[in-house]
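hey so u asked for the seq, here:
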Amino acid sequence: MQITLEIPDELATPLVPAGQDPARAALEAMGIEAYREHRMSGYQLQKLLGIESRYELDGLLKQHQVWLEYSIEDFERERELGERLWQKRQAELADESQRERRAK
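ran it, structure tokens below
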């Protein structure tokens, strides 16, 4: 899809950051707004903007003050998962240690 916009020069200047391509600025603004409103995934935004890494996308989103949505529930869920994984790993290490002792 191709979109053409006509904007008077005196109004275009405040819309586009100095030194940035106006077409790129418009594409980023549309994509970022779609991402912010959950109409587009991070992967889709990355593809739209031709960004190769998630790290680069995160930097762009931060520049535009789009923050990761991370609730206390998300934190608790990840903490519980981390605890379960840690306990599982400790049990695996204990089993390995017992097998090594028996092998001697």
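The chain has a mean pLDDT of 90. Residues 72-103 form the longest helix (32 residues).
lmk if thats what u needed
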